[in-house]
Amino acid sequence: MEVNLPVYIYNMKIGFDSKRLFCNFTGLGNYSRTLLRNLDHFYPDNDYYLYSTKVVDNEVTEEFVDHPDLNIRISEALFKGLWRSFSIKSQLKKDGIELYHGLSHEIPVNIHKTGIKSVVTIHDLIFKFYPETYAFIDRKIYDFKFRYACRHSDRIIAISENTKRDIIRFYNIDPEKIDVIYQALNPAFYKLKPQHETDRIIKQLNIPPDYLLSVGTVEPRKNLKKVLEALTWVNRDLQIPLVVVGKGRKYKQEAEHFARQAGLGKSVIWIDNLPANDHLQALYQNAKALIYPSLYEGFGLPVTEALLCKTPVITSAGSSLKEAGGPGSLYVNPKDPQEIAAAIEKILTDETFRQKMIETGYLYAHQCFAPDNLTRQVINCYQKTLDS
User: Fold this and answer.
1) What CATH architecture does domain 13-184+370-387 belong to?
2) Please, are residues 120 and 102 in contact by the beta-carbon 8 Å criterion?
């Protein structure tokens, strides 16, 4: 398929806040790595500089550490946090950076006074909606950094229309300054694994052939206890195990206790860590459905991952999840376990309906989250920023 990439007059010298690329191995880190990988693949003539306070050198980051065309700058400053927020500017100027992209909510203070243009990606404003899940000092720091970045960057990338609305609401930002650009997924998800391979992995994980799936950190916002409660409403003849993939602390203990009390102890399979990313893909592909009734998301990556794996999705009628799930997903009130249960029963009993969900969701995900298209949108944002 021909890739329709934009033509720009000059090659760009772009710097990135890469702390999470090298040190975070969940959402923000995945966003950073996927974006840099796609930029380098589709637009290799630009010069990319990666700035971080340290590098965790492992199998996830090695492709960046060993990449001959990426320029990595590691701070030798005594106070690393201050370097990221303040003194990094001298290194950016020394490297001749034209545009700096803060990949996760922040930019250096006073970068707008250096002549270097800046873009910031805002993923979500969860701390505004669920302040009780953050320490007081953390909320204050996040609010300062987010507000400063939104007001002083040249442009903002919001990862969903929902996040854009939140930025406008809380920080009174001109909508014209914000570009909504969805995040691309790990390349592995764009190609289905052969059935014999997924069957082997499922067997290796000791998972039964029929199961429902929940993916994500086990915390109150993800709403797992309502899923467990919904399972008690599902017709007994239709009940199959729920596989829960995700770490958690206090809320996970509460969920485990609830499952035992509700007689679901043997029907819930808990997985904290998966050996490799292909194991997660196999779990998606073989699941009867993904259940993801989150109360708030900046985007909702597991929803789109599931669609690309031809897995039906039950998710919330709110937040950004309709953007992630498109027209082929089932949307429910996340606070109503009976409504969640009814959605589960519909998928398990109506194979024609389930196949229609799979086909519609798969097409939507490939059309809406194609890596070349999303990367082109980022490049256009950079170009617009430098031309302003």
Assistant:
1) 3-Layer(aba) Sandwich (3.40)
2) yes
Single-letter amino acid, residue 52: S
Dist. CA 384–CA 387, nearest whole Å:
5
Q: Residue 266's pLDDT band (boundaries 50, 70, 90)?
A: confident
Query: In the numeric block, which tokens belong to residue 49?
Result: 């500089």
Helix (H) / strand (E) element for 129: namely helix 126-129
CA–CA distance from 306 to each of 137, 195, 257, 264 (Å)?
A: 36, 16, 28, 24
- For residue 259, give the nearest of 280, 235, 241 by alpha carbon: 241
Q: What confidence tier does 265 reach under pLDDT thresholds 50, 70, 90?
A: confident
Q: Please tell me the class of the 187-368 domain.
A: alpha beta
Helices 27-42 and 371-387, packing angle to 10 deg? 80
- Tens digits of residue pLDDT in 267-322: 999 999 887 778 999 999 999 999 999 999 999 999 999 999 999 999 999 778 99
CA angle 69, 74, 79 (to 5 degrees): 160
Domains of the chain: which residue ranges? 13-184+370-387, 187-368
For residue 15, is pLDDT > 80? yes
Closest C-alpha to 312, from 293, 284, 332: 284
**In the chain, what percentage of residues exceed pLDDT 70?**
97
Q: What is the pLDDT of residue 2?
A: 43
| Cβ-proximal residues to 365 (8 Å cutoff; 6+ apart), any chain | 304, 307, 308, 326
DSSP of 183-248, one letter per residue? PPPPGGGGSPPPHHHHHHHHHHTT--SS-EEEES-BSGGG-HHHHHHHHTTS-GGG---EEEE--B
- Spell 9-46 as b/e; 16+ CB within 10 A means b: eeebbbbbbbbbbbbbeebbbbbbbbbbbbbbebbeeb
pLDDT digits (tens, 9 = 90+) for 103-125: 999 999 999 999 999 999 999 99
3: its two tokens: 């890739």
**Helices 301-308 & 277-286, crossing angle to 10 degrees?**
70
Please determine whether the domains at 13-184+370-387 and 187-368 fall in the same fold group of CATH. yes
Q: How many CB atoms lie within 10 A of CB 377?
A: 15
